[in-house]
C-alpha cells in the first residue's frame, strides 16, 4: 500500500514537472546561432548535402568514434555475460522433440528473397548518407536486421564469428587511420577534406564522408550481428 | 504547434515507461519500460530542435543553400538522437543479457526472487 502510494506520488510529481515544461515551451521561430552556423558551414566547408551526417562524421566524428567504441564494448560484455558455461538446455527439447524442426518453406523462401534486398537497401542507405537521410549507423542496423532474419529462419545457421571480428577490426582501424590522415593532410583529426570535395550533391562528393560512412556501416553491422548471434540459446 | 504535440507525446512516453518500471515485477517488463522511457527522451530531443515551419536539414532541390539557414530545423538534436538511439540499443542488449543470466540462476524472471542487494 505504501509502495503503491509512493509510486503514485513519484509519477504525479514527474507529471507536474513535465506539465510545467510543456507549458513553458515556446516553438523557436528561427534556428539557434549554433545550428545556423552548422547549416551554413556543412555545405560550404564539407560539401555534404546532409547537415546531420556532416556533423556526425566530421565536426563531431570523434564522438562517433567513441560511440563505436561503446558498441564494441557492449558486444564484448554481452559475450562475457552470455558466454562461458551455460546450464544444459537439453531437458526441454527432450520433452518436445519437434523443438528443433526446420522452419517452413514459406519462411525459408521469403528469407532467400528478402535478404539480398535488405542488403542492397542497407548499402544504399550507407552510401547515400551524405546526400539524403541515412548513414553508417542506420545502414549497419539494417544489415543486422537481415542477419536477424537469417538467424530466425535458419536456427542451425552459424555465422562466421572470426570473419565478423576481423572485418570489424579492419574497418575500425581504417576509420582511425582516416582520422590520422586528416591530422596530417587536412586540418584536424577525422577531417573529411583528405579527399577532393567534388561537385556538391554528386555521389562521389563530400570528401571522405562516404568512405567513413561505409567503414562505420560495416563496423556497426558486424558488431550488431555478433551481439545478435550471442543471444542465440 | 506541432513540436508541442510531439514534446507532449515524448514526455507521456517517459511517464508510461516510468510507470511500467515501477509497478511491474517481471524483469522483461521492466526492460520494456526502460526502453519506452528512452524512446520518449529521443522524441523530446527531436521536438526541442524544431524550428517553426522548418524542414529536414538536407540541402537539395526543395531546400537551397541560401534559404537553408532560415527554413531548416536544428541539426544538432537530430545528430544527438542518432547517438542516443545507438546507446539505448546497447544498454538494452546488456540488460537482456543479464536477464537471461538471472533467469538461468533462479529459473524465474520475477524481481522479487533477487533480494541480495535489497536494503
TrEMBL record, chain A:
<feature type="transmembrane region" description="Helical">
    <location>
        <begin position="202"/>
        <end position="222"/>
    </location>
</feature>
<comment type="similarity">
    <text>Belongs to the CPA3 antiporters (TC 2.A.63) subunit B family.</text>
</comment>
<dbReference type="InterPro" id="IPR007182">
    <property type="entry name" value="MnhB"/>
</dbReference>
<protein>
    <submittedName>
        <fullName>Sodium:proton antiporter</fullName>
    </submittedName>
</protein>
<feature type="transmembrane region" description="Helical">
    <location>
        <begin position="6"/>
        <end position="26"/>
    </location>
</feature>
<feature type="transmembrane region" description="Helical">
    <location>
        <begin position="133"/>
        <end position="154"/>
    </location>
</feature>
<dbReference type="InterPro" id="IPR046806">
    <property type="entry name" value="MrpA_C/MbhE"/>
</dbReference>
<dbReference type="GO" id="GO:0005886">
    <property type="term" value="C:plasma membrane"/>
</dbReference>
<dbReference type="InterPro" id="IPR050622">
    <property type="entry name" value="CPA3_antiporter_subunitB"/>
</dbReference>
<feature type="transmembrane region" description="Helical">
    <location>
        <begin position="106"/>
        <end position="127"/>
    </location>
</feature>
<dbReference type="Pfam" id="PF20501">
    <property type="entry name" value="MbhE"/>
</dbReference>
<keyword id="KW-1003">Cell membrane</keyword>
<keyword id="KW-1133">Transmembrane helix</keyword>
<feature type="transmembrane region" description="Helical">
    <location>
        <begin position="68"/>
        <end position="85"/>
    </location>
</feature>
<feature type="domain" description="MrpA C-terminal/MbhE">
    <location>
        <begin position="3"/>
        <end position="89"/>
    </location>
</feature>
<dbReference type="Pfam" id="PF04039">
    <property type="entry name" value="MnhB"/>
</dbReference>
<keyword id="KW-0472">Membrane</keyword>
<feature type="domain" description="Na+/H+ antiporter MnhB subunit-related protein">
    <location>
        <begin position="106"/>
        <end position="224"/>
    </location>
</feature>
<keyword id="KW-0812">Transmembrane</keyword>
<feature type="transmembrane region" description="Helical">
    <location>
        <begin position="166"/>
        <end position="190"/>
    </location>
</feature>
From TrEMBL, chain B:
<dbReference type="InterPro" id="IPR039428">
    <property type="entry name" value="NUOK/Mnh_C1-like"/>
</dbReference>
<dbReference type="GO" id="GO:0005886">
    <property type="term" value="C:plasma membrane"/>
</dbReference>
<feature type="transmembrane region" description="Helical">
    <location>
        <begin position="79"/>
        <end position="100"/>
    </location>
</feature>
<protein>
    <submittedName>
        <fullName>Cation:proton antiporter</fullName>
    </submittedName>
</protein>
<dbReference type="InterPro" id="IPR050601">
    <property type="entry name" value="CPA3_antiporter_subunitC"/>
</dbReference>
<dbReference type="Pfam" id="PF00420">
    <property type="entry name" value="Oxidored_q2"/>
</dbReference>
<feature type="transmembrane region" description="Helical">
    <location>
        <begin position="6"/>
        <end position="23"/>
    </location>
</feature>
<feature type="transmembrane region" description="Helical">
    <location>
        <begin position="30"/>
        <end position="52"/>
    </location>
</feature>
<keyword id="KW-0472">Membrane</keyword>
<keyword id="KW-0812">Transmembrane</keyword>
<keyword id="KW-1003">Cell membrane</keyword>
<comment type="similarity">
    <text>Belongs to the CPA3 antiporters (TC 2.A.63) subunit C family.</text>
</comment>
<keyword id="KW-1133">Transmembrane helix</keyword>
Amino acid at each position: 500500500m505504501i509502495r503503491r502510494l509512493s509510486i503514485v506520488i513519484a509519477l504525479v510529481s514527474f507529471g507536474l514537472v513535465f506539465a510545467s515544461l510543456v507549458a513553458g515551451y515556446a516553438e523557436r521561430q528561427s534556428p539557434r546561432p549554433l545550428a545556423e552556423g552548422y547549416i551554413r558551414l556543412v555545405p560550404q566547408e564539407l560539401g555534404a548535402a546532409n547537415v546531420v551526417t556532416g556533423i556526425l562524421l566530421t565536426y563531431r566524428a570523434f564522438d562517433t568514434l567513441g560511440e563505436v567504441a561503446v558498441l564494441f564494448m557492449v558486444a564484448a560484455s554481452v559475450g562475457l555475460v552470455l558466454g562461458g558455461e551455460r546450464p544444459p538446455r537439453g531437458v526441454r527439447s527432450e520433452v518436445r522433440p519437434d523443438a528443433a524442426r526446420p522452419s517452413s518453406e514459406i519462411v525459408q523462401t521469403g528469407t532467400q528473397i528478402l535478404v539480398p534486398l535488405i542488403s542492397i537497401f542497407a548499402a544504399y542507405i550507407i552510401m547515400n548518407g551524405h546526400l539524403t537521410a541515412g548513414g553508417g549507423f542506420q545502414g549497419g542496423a539494417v544489415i543486422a536486421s537481415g542477419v536477424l532474419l537469417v538467424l530466425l529462419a535458419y536456427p542451425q545457421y552459424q555465422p562466421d564469428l572470426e570473419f565478423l571480428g576481423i572485418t570489424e577490426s579492419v574497418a575500425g582501424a581504417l576509420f582511425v587511420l582516416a582520422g590520422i590522415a586528416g591530422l596530417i593532410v587536412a586540418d584536424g583529426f577525422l577531417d573529411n577534406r583528405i579527399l577532393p570535395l567534388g561537385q556538391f550533391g554528386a555521389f562521389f562528393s563530400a570528401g571522405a564522408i562516404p568512405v567513413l560512412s561505409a567503414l562505420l556501416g560495416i563496423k556497426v553491422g558486424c558488431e550488431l550481428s555478433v551481439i545478435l548471434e550471442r543471444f542465440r540459446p | 504547434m506541432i513540436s508541442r504535440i510531439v514534446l507532449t507525446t515524448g514526455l507521456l512516453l517517459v511517464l508510461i515507461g516510468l510507470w511500467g518500471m515501477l509497478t511491474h515485477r517481471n524483469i522483461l517488463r521492466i526492460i520494456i519500460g526502460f526502453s519506452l522511457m528512452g524512446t520518449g527522451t529521443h522524441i523530446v530531443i527531436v521536438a526541442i530542435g524544431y524550428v517553426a515551419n522548418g524542414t529536414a536539414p538536407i540541402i537539395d532541390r526543395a531546400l537551397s543553400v541560401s534559404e537553408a539557414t532560415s527554413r531548416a530545423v536544428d541539426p544538432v538534436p537530430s545528430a544527438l538522437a542518432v547517438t542516443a538511439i545507438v546507446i539505448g540499443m546497447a544498454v538494452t542488449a546488456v540488460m537482456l543479457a543479464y536477464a537471461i543470466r538471472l533467469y538461468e540462476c533462479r529459473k524465474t524472471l520475477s524481481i522479487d526472487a533477487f533480494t541480495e542487494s535489497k536494503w
